[in-house]
Amino acid sequence: MSTRAWYDYYVIAPDTGMLSLAMRFYKWGDGTPENALEEYVLLQGRLHQHSNRLPVEWLDRLLRKQLGNLHACLPPHFAVGAFLFLLQRASDEAQRERWRGLGSQRQRPHAHVRFALDEAMAEHPFEIPPQTDPLLQRVRGFIATAAYLRPWQAYGLRLDLLHWLQYLTQPTHGADMGSLAGDWEPPWDIDYRYRCFFWIDPQDPFRIDQMAIELCERDETDVLTTLPDTTAHPDDNAWQRKQLEQLRATIREHDIGITSLALLQHEYTATPDRFFGLREQPDPEATARRARLEELRSSCNMLVGQIQNRFGPEVAATSRAIMEQIDDFDILLDLAIPTIDSADSTAWLNTLHKKVPPALIEAAQRTRELSKAADHP
Which superkingdom does the taxonomy of this entry point to (predicted)? Predict the structure, then answer.
């Protein structure tokens, strides 16, 4: 039976004296205290390797750009916790590849995502350069997946924020084993709860100056102070004592910081937990407009085809950008005769601009500008 655990990542800002729950996730399998300490050592080593400064701004920029107004609803320092989670997922992925061995790349389930991403990045180079650190290179791939293949705008009505973050790190909608974001509360089947604490620099909120961890049983008692069960078999007690000795030896060897949430709450003020199903909310008016546009799509395509036959592809492209904004059948119908009667392309475009409301023409212009920006990042 797999050992399952629940992780809470807390960020502490010493200058404000605030302690914030910045990320939480479930681990299905390998959630033993030994593995939790290994993961701690992994993050600790990456921080030391990069002078305590991980490129959290990659994710922070992505979230600010893609979430828009929803960004203000995130827990404080969410980008720090979420970036560390992506690093954790990158480590999970690297381990799975080692387990699978050197098989054909095309036979792996994530191959189609990587091929699509490589193709998109070849056509439009990504703003984040390739990394020599293999785990940061994988995190770069996760963020590029959001930028090119799975943007929040396309998934925010179907997935909440944590499920979307998880989806960036996996080839399909089906979650695999390892660290899994998406749940807001610990499932009933966990064996352990782990709390990781990260102190950020007052001058640089993306710099982590200190780490610590709390290892808890399912009922939140401290793993390191749990006494052997006096009713258990002597061999079980001996095994439990040996496990505790090994955990303490690992803590001493790697200079792992040990603390507790209860202790830190006396020193820092905990901000209210803000983990809820953050997702885009459908706009009823926008939804109704999309439905009207869909109903008129075939009529619009027919008129654009007629325009292309008469005035050529360039005028047709200009006309389509405007006509695809029309959600009123009467306006579209009023354009049918001019597509035949206009003497030339100039006369047609003048008629188009007269009959279509200025707001729709402006919307078409904004859409074209956004499209050009996406083509030339």
Answer: Bacteria
